[in-house]
Amino acid sequence: MSARGEAQQELRALYDRGALAGAYPAVPQLLARLEEAADDDALDRAGRLLARLNPADVLAAHPGTHVVHIAVTGRSTTAGLVPALTGRLARHGLLLIPYAAGSGGYVQELADPASGLYAHRPSITLCVLDPLTVWDRVRPPWQPYEVALEAERQRLLLAELARAHAAHGPPGATLVLNTVPLLRRFAHQLTGHAQRAELGACWREFNADLLRMNDPGAGVAVLDLEPLTSAGVRADDPRLGAYADAHCTAELLAAYAREAAHLVRAERGDAKKCLVLDLDGTLWDGVLAEDGPERVRAAHSLRAGAFGHFRRTLEQLASQGVLLAVCSKNDPEPVARALAAHPDWPLSSDDFVAVVADWGSKAEGIRTIASRLGITPSAVVFADDSTFEREVVRAGVPGAAVVPLDGEPAHHAERLLADSWFLVPSVTEEDRGRAARYRERERRDRGRAGATDYRSFLSGLGIEVDVGPAAGHETARIAQLSLRTNRFNLTGERLSGAQIRCLGKEPDALVLAVRAADRFGDDGVVGVVLARRDAAGLHLENMVVSCRVLGRGIEDAVLAGLLHAARDDGLPAVHATWRRTPANEAQAAFCPAHGFETADDLGDEIRYRHGLRHLPPVPVHVRLRLRLGHQQAQEVESCTPSSI
Q1: What letter would DSSP give residue 425?
Q2: 481 C-beta neighbours (distance < 10 Å), count
């Protein structure tokens, strides 16, 4: 029996035995096998099966399961979306707690602050705009300009509903809209070709205006359905529309659910960071050990050219901050020669932040790459054309995404992009410079290896740290740090860009960006401090520092500076909290190492207090500047930072 068939049978057997809730952590891997087989029907059946589970039963068996509260509403019946969404979210380890509005009530649901939708407290609201959106208010005889007017009225209504959602929904909640397919049965009611062209132009302007409403900071996201319909997904079924008021096909709802699940993952900060590639049959045509570095190809033939197209996809991903790495079963010397100066592609060894070429397990190779980069192995996407190697990695690197390539290179790019593993709410300048910063980090590591001792190495770095109120353009980066940083995240709290903006408007709140640079380059925004002040003192609600700068004393300098600032401002104490997550165990000792005392130990949460009597110095190798209000920045040595 195929792996797909085994996965289907196992899911069904678990459900029939009443054991599916207890086995929920195993569900993502089972669904991944169905995904790899591209069996949409099997995935839909799995979604319907999972939708029958009571979320409370899953949480009782696995309290740490990641939960997503989602409300689904729309102009017509969208009942089929919830099972599809349940399966797609489970594929990513998420448990859906849904609210499904009644048919056609989306305006009332979104406009009324007392509606059941807002009572559900959804972090995501899906407002599904079906293909009859606009058309239900157009009466014959009509002309394209009348459709354009009605489309504009609809857009203005949606803008009002988006504002209502921002006002009445939970802080940081996102309203998801979508573009609307233009159905042939409407366009072809026009018998003039010129009028059909005019209608097409008006409709595309309507969809373009919808897409321009996408604003992560305002809590609005817009899914573009055109790539789905252009790939052959039929938008509507006239019979279901006429007899069941269901104007989206099951196929469209399943594709929509997949895109929505990718968006949910991005909103949660679960984007992958590094793409690890095989070489033979993946990056180039040929077998390096047999053909040699000069004869593997990615150009000059139709088949080799398909590898070249895949390479251009990789270049595009890398330009937006996706880290590229290689894990290949080959000898290191020919791999280095092939990557250094092959005439068929501009990608070289400099474009890969890590290369592991040996004959060991690829699971171990991926763990080595993750360790070198300072990321968790689960932040990796692995692409390989060997079923055996994919199974090795799937078993040996839990949480890593595995992309099923095969012997047809023309499909490589489509399969790599199918699950949008690298999707983020928005790409920042820090993202675009990420690979360069990892190369700077490599130069630092070489400098460290050549230094007589680590202290002298740090002293020679010329580290400069600037701490100050976050500028508007830094909000996206700060949200990204909050969502994606695991190791140095004192509480594990995840905040979206909208939540960061809301926090920054509160009078006693501080949203402080931590910026760093040294003689090897400018790291940009590498951390954030979220704090409040009241009569009891300064409360550090969270402190997040990027893993790529840990070990340079930056986090120590920031905390020491804050303690000095609090004392100089006459505050009685500084309070901080550490909350256990799967990745931040080591940070439980961070506050005590700087003189904090335990105020309350709740096991997985420890609350600390610093009485500001004995303050730690700012590390001597760090030049710290604090700008905690609107005053001018002041330099901080080992004490006396600017006041809070």
Answers
A1: S
A2: 26
Q: Which residue matches tokens 């951390």?
A: 527
Q: Is 39 helix (H, G, I), strand (E, B) or coil?
A: coil
Question: Is the whole-model pTM more than 0.90?
Answer: no
Whether the per-residue pLDDT at 343 is higher than 50: the answer is yes
Give the strand pairing for 605-610 and 597-601. Answer: antiparallel
In the block, which residue shows the tokens 């005053």? Answer: 631
Rounded Cα distance, 520 and 517, in Å: 8
Q: Any idea where the domains of the chain sit in the sequence?
A: 1-64, 65-267, 274-417, 450-636
Over residues 393-417, the pLDDT tens digits come to: 998 999 899 999 988 999 999 999 9
**Which has more pLDDT, 484 or 538?**
538
Instruction: Give bridge partners of residue 276 from the DSSP assignment.
Output: 325, 382
Contacts 24+ apart (CB under 8 A), 349-354: 350/439, 351/315, 351/318, 351/324, 351/435, 352/324, 352/325, 352/326, 353/274, 353/323, 353/324, 353/325, 353/435, 353/438, 353/439, 353/442, 354/325, 354/326
Give the pLDDT confidence of 65-95 residue by residue, as tens digits. Answer: 999 999 999 988 777 899 999 999 999 999 9
Tell me, rounded to whole angstroms, the distance of Cα 488 from its chain centroid: 18
Please state, in angstroms and as integers, the Cα–Cα distance from residue 137 to each residue in 150, 151, 352, following that order. Answer: 7, 10, 54
Residue owning tokens 């096909």: 249
Q: Does domain 450-636 have CATH number 2.60.40.10?
A: no
For the domain 65-267, what is the CATH superfamily, name and number? SGNH hydrolase (3.40.50.1110)
> Which tokens is 137 given?
């208010």
Q: State pLDDT tens for residues 210-235.
A: 999 999 888 999 999 999 999 999 99
pLDDT in tens, 261-278: 999 999 888 899 999 999
Q: Which residues are CB-contacts of 600 (< 8 A; sequence separation ≥ 6)?
A: 606, 607
**Residues 374 and 548 sit within 8 Å (Cβ to Cβ):** yes
Higher pLDDT, 253 or 627: 253
What pLDDT is stored for residue 49 in this prediction?
92
Secondary-structure class of domain 274-417 per CATH:
alpha beta
- DSSP-derived secondary structure for 219-288: TEEEE--HHHHHTT-----HHHHHHHS--S-HHHHHHHHHHHHHHHHHHTT----EEEE--BTTTBBS-H
pLDDT at 77: 76
Query: How far, in Å, CA of 34 to CA of 36, rounded?
Result: 5
| Same CATH fold assignment for domains 65-267 and 274-417 | yes
237: buried, middle or exposed (CB in 10 Å: 19+, 13-18, 0-12)?
middle
Chain position carrying tokens 């949200």: 479
Task: Please list, residue by residue across 283-310, b when 16 or more beta carbons sit within 10 angstroms of its beta carbon and e when fewer do.
Answer: bbbbebeebebeebbbeeeeebbbbbeb
Three-class secondary structure of residue 108 per DSSP: helix
Tokens representing residue 518 in the block: 């040294």
Name the one residue in this structure whose structure tokens are 């207890």.
22
**β partners of residue 100:** 72
Whether residue 476 has pLDDT greater than 70:
yes
Query: Which of 32-36, 51-55, 263-267 is the least confident region?
Result: 32-36
Tell me how far apart the alpha carbons of residues 27 and 58 are, in angstroms, rounded to a whole number. Answer: 12
Q: Tens digits of per-residue pLDDT, 350-367?
A: 788 899 999 999 999 999
